[in-house]
Amino acid sequence: MQKQVEYSDAIKTKYPEQVVIVIAKDKNGKVNPVTLGWTMIVSGNPPMMAIAVAKKHYSIEAISYSRCFTICYPSSEMADETLFFGSKSGRDTDKFAECKCNAQPAEKIDSVLLSDAVANFECLLDSQAEAGDHIIFIAKIVCSHMNTEPKKRLYTTAPGHKLGTAS
Amino acid sequence: MQKQVEYSDAIKTKYPEQVVIVIAKDKNGKVNPVTLGWTMIVSGNPPMMAIAVAKKHYSIEAISYSRCFTICYPSSEMADETLFFGSKSGRDTDKFAECKCNAQPAEKIDSVLLSDAVANFECLLDSQAEAGDHIIFIAKIVCSHMNTEPKKRLYTTAPGHKLGTAS
């Protein structure tokens, strides 16, 4: 049976929710990673994905400048860097330099891949749309990578940024 | 270590992926449900969600006509109707009439809620964007409901529309 409730209560049923790390270089060439839960595939042919980024986030500037970014699926072993990238701002921190995670250059865009991730998708910005307090970036995937070892994806499993596996 | 692979291989790492049932009435008043995996929250204030619907799907017509829809989080007990709504077209089937699932009128939009779902969100279409072979519908949530009983959300857990829980 359904009961009408506040959105803030109903949305607590969303878990587990996938987590991605999105990486774009800013105008100074600084690699700026951010952790996002709001992402989806949006096209099969061509392959495309979308992300929603809070308007106040520094990543808006970085993505708008470089017009390309990596979408990484962090593995269940990457909870520390995933939390770190989601809790600091690239406006006053070099998050990528502070966090010693393994990375390598992307193949087809000017960004980096996270070597220990489950998968990495290189994305070229196609369009964007405004949605309330966020900007939706819609991008074509131009190159895909996956880990040579089997890894489990990381999810937010409960409120308060509780991370874990989901299967 | 990352290895460059085809997108079709890399994207197999996406599971578990959330499932929603989106319901919009068509121009004849027929209740048209469709199962989607491509959805995300896109704004916190105001609360907004987005869905990506294949251009060939009948739901494009229904949503474009009524400009409102329900996003339901099906429960783990709703695998049968979730598969059914995702495997038939509303163009030549009255999916909702054929499937005896419990429903009730929405409160603030001209649509229905699924009574056994984990949660239901009533959405007013705000804007839309094109993305390859899909249309992204971006909507404001104007009313929220959740089940009075604790329920688990349904996820696609593996390729081939394998459904199950994810925690």
Topology:
The structure is a homodimer of 167-residue chains.
Chain A: E1 2-5, H1 7-10, E2 17-18, E3 20-25, E4 31-36, E5 39-43, E6 48-54, H2 58-66, E7 68-73, H3 79-87, H4 95-98, E8 103-105, E9 112-114, E10 119-131, E11 134-147, E12 155-158, E13 162-164
Antiparallel strand pairs in A: 2-12, 3-4, 3-7, 5-6, 6-11, 7-10, 8-9, 10-11, 12-13
Please provide a written account of the structure.
The structure is a homodimer of 167-residue chains. Chain A is of the alpha+beta class. Chain A has a single domain, classed as Roll (Pnp Oxidase, Chain A), CATH 2.30.110.10. The first copy, chain A, has 4 helices and 13 strands. Chain A has helices at 7-10, 58-66, 79-87, 95-98, and strands spanning 2-5, 17-18, 20-25, 31-36, 39-43, 48-54, 68-73, 103-105, 112-114, 119-131, 134-147, 155-158, 162-164. In chain A, strands 4-3-7-10-11-6-5 form a 7-stranded antiparallel beta sheet. In chain A, a hairpin with a 2-residue loop joins strand 10 (119-131) and strand 11 (134-147). Chain A is globular. The two termini of chain A are 27 Å apart. The mean pLDDT of chain A is 95. At the A-B interface, strand 1, helix 1, strand 2, strand 5 and strand 6 of A face strand 1, helix 1, strand 2, strand 5 and strand 6 of B. Strand 11 of chain A pairs antiparallel with strand 1 of chain B, so a sheet runs across the interface.
